[in-house]
Specification:
The chain is α/β, with parallel strands linked by helices and 292 residues long. The protein has six helices and five strands, in the order αβαβαβαββαα. The protein has helices spanning 4-58, 91-99, 114-122, 139-154, 190-194, 216-290, and strands at 76-81, 107-112, 126-131, 160-168, 174-182.
Length: 292
Amino acid sequence: MPSTRDIRRRIKSIKNTAQITKAMQMVASSKMRKAQIAALAGRPYATLMNDVLAAVAGNVGDFSHPLMELRPVKKTAVVLITTDKGLCGALNSNLLREAGKFDKDTTVYVCAGRKGAQFVSRVKRNLGAEFTYKDSPLFAEARAISRFVQKLFLDGEVDSVEVIYTNFINTLVQKPEVRRLLPIREIEGVEAGVSGEGGGKVLKRTDVEYLFEPDAGAVLGNMLPHYLNFLVYQFLLEAKASEHSARMVAMKNATDNAKQIIKDLTLEYNKLRQANITKELLEITTAQMAMG
């Protein structure tokens, strides 16, 4: 049975841990709100951009572009968007489980986030590149990732590009998603891919007639790279909102658990202290009776 000194030490240690988790919860909470606003703010632009692209695609006729080229898939690039730090619940574990489903011999990984790169190195898979991104992702960071995988695809080094990221649904729910980035076959509504509805809705083409300069094909050809750049940027925003939300919830649960453990240990300490006092009183009473 532990002594009262041991229990006091445990209570002190857990109180220190609770202070750390509480501080981390507050930091994550402040960052979470900003990241959620950024992720939600990007969705209307994504929807409008897809409306425009759908309108252009509906007036372009038979159009071909290197980014839309279909070929037998012999090698796949996977863009794995994870966090740099842990302590965010099962968020990274769920992403890495999805990443592990791809064939080891025919997959090259492009990692955004330190946890993903560590996973690829640990399981001895092919790491093509590692990128970093800030707490407030920049469009330039997303464009660098997008251009890298576009170059892999255009050079014929890979035949398809998939993205694994965490889709932000709400503060308590974040869902790992696998999205096809290349080749582009249909322009899908980004709002379906990032709002938790799932499935990827193909936008309806409009009957309104547009005039394009120089022509619809040239407009669509110039917009497709930007379309991919913004998709990756939106994925980064979703990932950051999910990360801070998951970390806030995880640290709150850790703080609540620490408080419950402290409560239980305090009760045990009081019981043990009361038992010791009772034992000492009995010893004093027995000694007085023995002395007559």
